[in-house]
Amino acid sequence: MASVPSLASTVQQRLADGLSAALPDAASADPLLRRSDRADFQANGILALAKQLKGNPRELATKVVEAIPANDVLKEIEVSGPGFLNITVTDSAIIDTLAARAADARLGVPFNESAGTTVIDYAQPNVAKEMHVGHLRSAVIGAAMVEILEFTGETVVRRHHIGDWGTQFGMLIQFLIEHPHELDHSSESEVSGEEAMSNLNRLYKASRALFDSDEEFKTRARARVVDLQAGDEETLALWQRFVDESKIYFYSVFDKLDMDIRDGDVVGESGYNDMLVETCRILEESGVAVRSEGALCVFFDDVKGPDGNPVPLIVQKSDGGFGYAATDLSAIRDRVQNLKATSLLYVVDARQSLHFKMVFETARRAGWLNDEVKAVQLAFGTVLGKDGKPFKTREGETVRLVDLLDEAIDRASAVVREKAQDLTEAEIAERGAQVGIGAVKYADLSTSAARDYKFDLDQMVSLNGDTSVYLQYAYARIQSILRKAGDAKPVAHRELGLAASERALGLHLDGFGELIAETAAEYAPHKLAAYLYQLASHYTTFYSECPVLKADTPEQVENRLFLCELTARTLHQGMALLGIRTPERL
After folding, report:
1. Tell me, which fold does domain 7-89 have in CATH?
2. Which fold has domain 117-159+268-384?
3. Cα–Cα dist 120/376, whole Å
4. How many CA atoms lie less than 13 Å away from 456 in the CB half-sphere?
5. Which distant-in-sequence residues (6+ apart) come within 8 Å of 117 by Cβ?
6. What is the DSSP pairing of strand 74-80 with strand 84-89?
């Protein structure tokens, strides 16, 4: 089915027609329509137009109103103040557009006509290292942007740029050679993520202690780095064991986060090794990068250190080694030339903003990025504790991500158990996980990514306020009403008048398509979260003011059931795009 034009776009079109009929010179003027508290919409564009035409804004506004023919969409247009138009639409127009949305599986949300291919770089854990609270935001924000962009018709390529290369692997591999059973498993059955991480942790600590205390081991470990970089078969095979063991652990954490991570999407730093030399050659031969004290560097006029001297991006070190810049630039080459990306989206900590600014500018100078291909860092802030300081354990260590998620599930299960009337223990456990993980994701996604946010589990699993639990309960309440409706079915009745809270709910539902387009274009999942919270709030007001199953007439029951069902579908679709489940019963 074709997308459904929103009431806002229909009203905009009627105003534009009126403008061009009344003022032919202003045919292309923008009415500047927006939602309003005084009426359904307000148009402010005539003020600027009057200035341009040197006319009286109120007189021009009156002319425009008179030029709009009578129709079944616009109920009333009032000229207010110095030439604002306050516009009220008819009740039947609200129900008509909602009925068109309800008839479409996509709720009338349009596809983006200029959709391309976006590579999203997100969820980037490090091999042989535990995932901590700092890994949460990249994973959650990135996964939501994958869903949102795919829903608008974008071709999305997921990339998990895991840290799987570097000098520390010399230490780990050499230790494993000398202690060959350190990664052995306790049984032949499926290995848990906890066991895999515990093996890796133990090996990492033991190898680090030996590296720091034994000069001879340090020398052997450094020689092993050379073997690894040279592609020695035995060394690479042992390196692969670390990667595989780490993946068992990563995937267990992502599974708990209810996230779909596919093996083919994991392309770590090592995936670009074969491109590094050529990347450096291209940059040097094109003059984008120059040799400075033996290192291959890119300089920028606007990037200076505290001493006022230019800070370069070092692509290759003076000893011939490659830094992150060489890998990141090679990844851009691969994503643009091989994956045919039109957009590159990096969901990366704001503290890496300078690095990515320099990398993107270098890629532009090299011609890999241009007007047709853009790169954007979706930079995110820090997760803070309740005290507003970076989130740490009492011992001052970084909080393990698994511990955080387990605690969220425990808290949420307690809330579900308290409210549950007819749920089994198995259902409480399942809903507890859906509510707990949803709470963690929503707290993250409802904050603008660039801002820090406080991790407060008590607040996150609260039934009141701007939480996912509030949204999930609104959805479950609607499902309960629909189950109790018996023979009464949701049917749109355009002939019925609407109460104020029905109108407010209907107008908000109608804005879903435009909101999705804005969220996708701005890479701003917090806007979708805000929309859904407002939707649940409008529904709560409607529910308290308008009896549904005990409405005055059978037609009114059907119409209100129709509003309930469309609200539930919109909540379900919106929450799914954020990666949050909506249980049918809570």
Report:
1. Gyrase A; domain 2 (3.30.1360)
2. Rossmann fold (3.40.50)
3. 10
4. 12
5. 154, 155, 156, 157, 339, 340, 341, 342, 343
6. antiparallel
**Beta strands 453-454; 383-384: pairing state:** parallel
Scan for tokens 């009925």, then name that residue: 99
CATH architecture of structural domain 401-577: Orthogonal Bundle (1.10)
Which has the closest alpha carbon to 252: 201, 195, 199? Answer: 195
CA distance 37 to 41: 8
Tens place of pLDDT per residue across the chain (586 aa): 567 899 999 999 888 888 888 877 776 778 888 888 889 999 988 887 877 778 888 888 888 888 888 888 999 999 988 888 999 999 999 999 999 999 999 999 999 999 999 999 999 999 999 999 889 999 999 999 999 999 999 999 999 999 999 888 999 999 999 999 888 887 766 788 988 998 999 999 999 999 999 999 999 999 999 899 889 999 999 999 999 999 999 999 999 999 989 999 999 999 999 999 999 999 999 999 999 999 999 999 888 777 888 889 999 999 888 989 999 999 999 999 999 999 999 999 999 999 999 999 999 999 999 999 999 999 999 988 888 888 877 777 788 899 999 999 999 999 899 887 788 899 999 999 999 999 999 999 999 999 988 888 888 888 888 999 999 999 999 999 999 999 999 999 999 999 999 999 999 999 999 999 999 999 999 999 999 999 999 999 999 999 999 999 999 999 999 999 999 999 999 999 999 999 999 8
Q: What is the distance between the alpha carbons of residues 448 and 470, in angstroms, rounded to a whole number?
A: 19
> What's the rounded Cα separation, in Å, for the pair 515 and 525?
10
Task: Evaluate if pTM is beyond 0.85.
Answer: yes
* Contacts with 189 (C-beta within 8 Å, 6 or more apart), sequence order: none
Q: How far is the C-alpha of 121 from the C-alpha of 325, rounded, in Å?
A: 15
Residue labelled with tokens 């939480």: 467
